[in-house]
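User: Design a sequence. Structure:
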């Protein structure tokens, strides 16, 4: 009796083992069929683009990562890298986008899409600019990348907007120099203020802050006792911007240091 029970237990164990092998084998066969299916990078790339259109950026990135790693033809792998960057840009994740565009250019700066990547890199940085007092280094970097686009890809189709962005960056940097110069002037640190105002006038000519920079540079010189430099600076202001109210103020300042001026032509 005991022997019969032992035989039955062995049969049950054997049956369970056979069932396990059968299930495992079926699963392996199914996995093998899936793994052996040919990968179509073109279809996957189209699916990713459809998801981007639907603003499913995370889903698109998963597919694009697969294209990037599995495309043996390499026809779509580079494009997948670029579109991954685009998903971040479209989702307004500009810091991540900048990193991806930079990585794309680092891998192949001669790719036919390199000018596009360079433009989007610069634009990703530009989009990160907030207030000038907190974004100075970002503005500097954006300016460098826009200038690199002009220099390295002179036939790129983004020249007009690039020129506009460069002017915008330079204007912001000029504003920063004026902001710091004004801070020093109000503190009575006239030498430091003069350095900042001079930097603005030298590095960012034509800035909207030029009249104010000239005026407060002249006043800084007056406070430093450098009346000759004050005269030439305020004279430049009056001659370049004769119709501005600040030029009238400059004439009053010249009077205060012994130079009577009524018209810009009379400044000596």
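Assistant: Done.
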């Amino acid at each position: 009796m005991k022997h019969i029970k032992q035989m039955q237990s062995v049969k049950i164990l054997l049956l369970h083992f056979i069932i396990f092998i059968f299930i495992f084998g079926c699963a392996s066969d199914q996995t093998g069929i899936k793994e052996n299916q040919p990968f179509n990078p073109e279809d996957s790339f189209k699916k990713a683009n459809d998801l981007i259109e639907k603003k499913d950026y995370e889903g698109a990135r998963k597919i694009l990562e697969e294209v990037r790693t599995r495309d043996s033809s390499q026809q779509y792998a580079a494009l997948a890298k670029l579109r991954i960057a685009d998903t971040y840009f479209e989702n307004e994740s500009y810091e991540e986008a900048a990193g991806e565009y930079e990585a794309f250019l680092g891998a192949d700066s001669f790719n036919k899409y390199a000018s596009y990547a360079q433009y989007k890199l610069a634009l990703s940085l530009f989009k990160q600019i907030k207030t000038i007092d907190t974004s100075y280094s970002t503005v500097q970097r954006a300016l460098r990348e826009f200038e690199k686009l002009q220099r390295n890809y002179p036939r790129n189709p983004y020249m007009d907007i690039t020129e506009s962005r460069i002017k915008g960056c330079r204007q912001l940097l000029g504003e920063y120099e004026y902001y710091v110069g004004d801070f020093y002037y109000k503190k009575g640190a006239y030498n430091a203020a003069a350095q900042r105002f001079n930097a603005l006038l030298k590095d960012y000519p034509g800035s909207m802050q030029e009249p104010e920079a000239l005026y407060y540079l002249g006043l800084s010189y007056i406070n430093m006792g450098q009346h000759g430099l004050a005269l030439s600076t305020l004279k430049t202001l009056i001659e370049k911007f004769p119709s501005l109210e600040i030029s009238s103020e400059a004439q009053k300042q010249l009077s205060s240091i012994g130079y009577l001026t009524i018209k810009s032509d009379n400044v000596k």
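The first helix runs from residue 2 to 36. Confidence is low (pLDDT under 50) at residues 2-7, 13-34, 261-268.
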